Amino acid sequence: MNSTSNSIAVRVPASSANIGPGFDVLGMALSLHLEAGFGSSPADSIEATQNHPVLVAFKHCGGQGPLWVRSQMPMGKGLGFSGAARVAGVSLAHAQKNGSDEIIFRNAQTELLAIASELEGHPDNVSASMLGGVVASVAGSTVRIPTPLDPAIIVWVPQEQTSTRESRTKLPTTVSFADAVFNVGRTALLVAAFASGDISALQTATQDRLHQDLRFKKVPASQAAMLGCIDAGAWCAWLSGSGPTIAAMCDPADAQNIADKFPDQGSTMVLRIAAQGAQLLAI
Fold it and tell me: Which site among 83, 94, 106, 111 is 20 to 30 Å from 235 CA-CA?
């Protein structure tokens, strides 16, 4: 892409965070995208409002001028909309100052990810959206988890919305030793299952005692949908982010059949893990 272009855009994938036991640590990029930019705008885009997270992040990093946005992601559903928007904003501010050279952008990603994580309040969503794939993020360090798996990711999106901030107020400030050990063990097992491609371990590895049951009290239909898709043949399933969306992992050959088993009171999408994270686009 021409580094002197006055029109620059970025394409950022959605994400599913926590993946069961990995609260605020694990994230997965999904093949559903948000695009934003400055300069020439696509006909189907909108101008980012003053409080839009993409424009807030852009201005936080010194960006100047209006931005356009178009997005395939639903807001407030647990698919990382705000995290993707913040990744887009910080990326565009960097490109406005430094040009759109892909190597320069890649070299700046650690710094940009730290800023986006601070704005988001936790690193799991933004890390997946910035880097793509499946990631683990702790205390400023992010590692992409290599995996031979290329599953379908089915997301069931009910009509309700959830507020991540409100949802967090319902979570306990302390947990029992037994529950901590339960989640530590399953998070380690989940990372190992991704790395080794061990499908048989995934259902146990995505169990959780820290947040899902508490959040399901507000969205019981999501819990029923999660259990139902396991019965229908999914390898595993989890509450995506703070919900209410359910994400399920399965063999691509079985995806549509499993997707058809989800309740009618919501929309279903069959996605894949997005290997590519934030990407500057030529306009």
Answer: 83
Residues of the chain with CATH 3.30.70.890: 152-272
What is the dotted CATH code of the domain comprising 8-145+274-281?
3.30.230.10
By CB neighbour count within 10 A (0-12 exposed, 13-18 middle, 19+ buried), where does 173 fall? exposed
* Contact predicate 247/262, CB 8 Å: no
CA distance 51 to 69: 13
Q: Is the pLDDT of residue 2 over 50?
A: no
Cα angle: 195, vertex 198, 200; to 5 degrees: 150
Looking at the structure, give the CATH architecture of the domain made up of residues 152-272.
2-Layer Sandwich (3.30)
Start-end of CATH 3.30.230.10 domains in the chain: 8-145+274-281
Contacts of 271 (CB under 8 A, 6+ apart): 30, 31, 32, 152, 153, 154, 155
pLDDT digit string, tens, across residues 90-118: 999 999 999 999 999 999 999 999 999 99
Cβ atoms of 244 and 78 within 8 Å: the answer is yes
